[in-house]
Amino acid sequence: MKNVLPFLRDLAENNTREWFQDNKKRYQQAKGEFEEFIGKLLPQLALIDKGLSGLEVKQCVFRIYRDVRFSHDKSPYKTNMGAAMTRGGRKSPFATYYFHMEPGSVFAGGGIWMPDAPVLKAMRQEVYYNVDEFKSILNAPSFRKYFDGISGDKLKRPPRDFPSDFPDVDLLMYKSYVTTTQLRDEQVLRENFMEELLNVYRAMYPFNSFINRALADF
């Protein structure tokens, strides 16, 4: 993927439709490299999480075009390329394995981000009834090797429908259940980068599996 980050770096400095049209071939080349990588990654990832079997690249990769209708930032293009590898496609409510390429901000992550209220409640219930199992996942050495825990915004007070004196109420206060690990730009050029990324997803699998069990009814 040698052309992806250089293209995105230049795009960040020239985020206009005119520049993009003049560099359309560079975009197509970078896009092709990224999609080829995801295409090779998917069957390997499906060996870790069988729920991803049969997933196609087009179900995972995000468009580079920004929706600027409700944004103060009218830049027409995203300055990253990303893929959300999720059971049923990236728009499904299940846990995702995410990969993000952006100059200075290459990272892998997973979980569920800002889910709808019923989905979030189901996740909190799963944590509430199986908190020891969930904590063992978060504290496992394989998980801690890559992840610091759950990240994202939290409620200021315990969620309704759950007892405020629950010993691990802090784990119920997240608005998202996501975790991320930062990668270095130069890593993506290594011959063994895919295996490095798969190691991250192997460590993430118990976390995502717990989430998907909670969302089985969805």
Explain what this protein looks like in three dimensions:
This protein has helices spanning 4-13, 17-22, 24-48, 117-129, 131-139, 141-144, 193-214; strands at residues 81-86, 96-101, 106-112, 177-183. By secondary structure, it is an alpha+beta fold. Strands 1-2-3-4 form a four-stranded antiparallel sheet. Helix 3 (24-48) crosses helix 7 (193-214) and helix 4 packs across helix 5. The mean pLDDT is 94.
What structural keywords apply?
7 helices, 4 strands, alpha+beta, 218 residues, single chain, BirA Bifunctional Protein, domain 2
Fold topology:
Blueprint: H1 4-13, H2 17-22, H3 24-48, E1 81-86, E2 96-101, E3 106-112, H4 117-129, H5 131-139, H6 141-144, E4 177-183, H7 193-214
Antiparallel strand pairs: 1-2, 2-3, 3-4
